[in-house]
Design brief:
mainly alpha; Arc Repressor Mutant, subunit A; two-stranded antiparallel ribbon; 2 strands; elongated
Length: about 110
């Protein structure tokens, strides 16, 4: 599963945190760090990344409890991100080609 998540663009640490949350349910950062035998700071960094993408949710109580969304929803988010990126590239295609051709001509 970790390899699949990494192939989908997750970092190793983010993938490990996501898998831990899906396997063990809602957890505090310290619990995740203990389970993964890593530093709490690294876990918080990954949780922040995953929250920014909408893949992990945090409770409002302190210390916060974190939970993962379903893998199906993760795939939907990643598909949407990739479609949006493809649209950005398509939109800028002519400008990028023009700049590329100018650069090539200057080097010749």
């Amino acid at each position: 599963m970790l390899r699949n998540l990494i192939n989908l663009g997750f970092t190793q640490a983010d993938a490990e945190v996501y898998v831990s949350l899906t396997e063990h349910g809602s957890q505090r950062a310290q619990e995740i760090a203990t389970a993964l035998k890593t530093y709490k700071r690294q876990v918080y960094r990954s949780l922040k990344n995953l929250q920014a993408k909408g893949i992990v949710n945090a409770s409002t109580n302190r210390p916060a409890q974190f939970s993962a969304i379903s893998f199906e929803k993760v795939l939907d988010i990643l598909i949407k991100e990739n479609v949006e990126e493809a649209k950005r590239v398509e939109k800028n295609k002519n400008e990028l080609l023009t700049k590329w051709q100018t650069l090539i001509r200057e080097k010749s």
